[in-house]
Design goal:
By secondary structure, this protein is an alpha/beta fold. Helices cover 22% and strands 19% of the residues. The chain is built from 11 helices and 20 strands. The strands form 4 sheets. The chain has a 7-stranded mixed beta sheet. The radius of gyration is 22 Å and the shape is globular. The two termini are 33 Å apart.
Length: 452
């Protein structure tokens, strides 16, 4: 197939609050949390207790089903709190950080000098194995399985997403080592998708030992699921692995330095933010660490991730393990009388270009969380969602099959190829106000329960 793919379908959402390309804060946070809920399918078993001292790379949690899969501490310090919820469900392990970082030494070894089994052992022991996400279903990769390929998306098209060329441009050697390691581990192709616009000047242009694909298009062109569907679609009984470039760099650093280094540049964005920029911090950083970006606001919604598919974490939450973006939005509580009958709206964005704001196409909008109505009858035609979802599936029929819990139809209409994030644009334009990503997540959970 062609290594240049232009997608005609999709949606560019002009939301204000993009992060400026400068790092404004690098201080290590006072505490960092490890959250088992970040990892789909992970059943946590505690390996530490309050008061234990840990180094960056010390095992903290193990999976009950696969005890060899570990979650390790991203920082050094003392376990200060074990957070539990209803029925004693483990929510987080909180670590009070040291002023000076100390690391477990796993030994620096070039992946080229290691066997596949030695690479697997290194990833499992270091706690970086959960960085590998297996599709279908988006669970932690099975150590006993061999995927047909590994996929990496080296660009993002989600609203206000972090600029990966800025955040990772100086980490190309580590990313290259990560590609080498995963290629040897799986014995399959590693596919890296990049932004076709300006690719010749991109630092990702220097990557080797991988099949490079150039994508051009609107969101969700940067979603790895969309890229897989155009490169090598997932069929029944097939699996692929995906890994974010941020965590791919961490895998490379493990072999280059022998240490678990999860520090990353995180974009702080959103219309409600008092300032925009990047911070250098760790996964599990508490929201209070960025207090100066939202001030004393009580009507802000803090999201770990992008505004379409990120997770609301509130003022007491933590940055997700896979996230390199925090979005601060205004809670939408205002009502608008006869809003649907007012075409003269210059401060409202319309995906269908129904308002006169279509003529100010350069404008960015201070979007909030207001749905402008409640759930309504689900009667959309399939072409409505298909216009913003560039995948060869039947989105409306798949969503309805998930609602009905019809496994046969979910298989027929494409459940193996998707994760909830792929439907974010469909949810954004949905006039019926359905929580489409939650519906698809429920369908995936049913498939895991019934088909595992």
């Amino acid at each position: 197939m062609s290594n240049y793919i232009e997608l005609k379908k999709g949606l560019a959402i002009p939301i204000s609050g993009e992060a400026t390309l400068n790092v404004t804060k690098t201080k290590v946070p006072d505490t960092v949390a490890i959250q088992p809920s970040d990892f789909k399918g992970f059943l946590p078993r505690l390996l530490v207790k309050e008061g234990d001292r840990v180094l960056a790379g010390t095992p903290v949690l193990a999976d009950k089903t696969h005890p060899e899969i570990l979650l390790t501490a991203p920082v050094s310090g003392v376990v200060s709190e074990i957070v539990r919820g209803e029925k004693r469900k483990l929510l987080a392990v909180v670590i009070k950080t040291d002023s000076k970082m100390e690391y477990v030494d796993f030994g620096a070894k070039k992946s080229a000098d290691l066997s596949a089994s030695e690479i697997k052992e290194a990833l499992l022991n270091s706690g970086l194995w959960p960085s590998l996400v297996q599709r279908p279903y988006g669970v932690i990769a099975d150590p006993d399985a061999t995927p047909k390929a590994v996929f990496v998306s080296a660009f993002k098209t989600a609203p206000l997403a972090a600029d990966l060329e800025f955040t990772l441009g100086d980490q190309i050697p580590a990313i290259q080592e990560g590609i080498n390691a995963l290629g040897k581990l799986t014995g399959t192709k590693v596919h890296v998708s990049v932004n076709a616009c300006g690719f010749e000047n991109s630092p990702f242009h220097r990557l080797t030992n991988a099949e490079i694909h150039q994508f051009k298009g609107k969101h969700p062109a940067g979603n790895v699921g969309v890229q897989i569907s155009h490169i090598d679609p997932i069929r029944k009984d097939e699996t692929v692995w995906t890994v974010s470039p941020v965590l791919l760099a961490a895998i490379g650093k493990l072999f280059l330095t022998g240490r678990v280094e999860l520090k990353r540049k995180v974009a702080v964005t959103g219309p409600k933010a008092l300032d925009y920029g990047y911070i250098e911090t760790f996964p599990g950083t508490p929201v209070d660490y960025i207090h100066e970006f939202y001030g004393n606001s009580t009507d802000a919604r803090i999201v770990s991730g992008d505004p379409l598919s990120g997770k609301t974490i509130g003022f007491n939450g933590y940055l997700g393990f896979f996230d390199d973006q925090i979005t601060i939005l205004q809670e939408g509580t205002d009502t608008e009388l006869f809003g649907w009958a007012r075409p003269f709206r210059f401060n409202q964005f319309s995906a269908t270009r129904s308002y006169f704001s279509r003529f100010v196409f350069w404008k960015k909008y201070d979007m909030d969380t207001n749905l402008h109505g409640g759930p309504r009858a689900f009667v959309m035609s399939d072409s409505y969602y298909a216009d913003v979802l560039p995948m060869d599936i039947f989105p409306t029929y798949l969503i309805k099959a998930c609602l009905a819990g019809d496994i046969d139809k979910m298989e027929k209409y494409g459940i193996y190829e998707v994760l909830p994030e792929d439907f974010a644009t469909c949810e954004f334009i949905d006039p019926s106000k359905n929580n489409i990503q939650d519906i698809v997540a429920g369908g995936i959970d049913l498939m895991l329960k019934e088909m595992a």
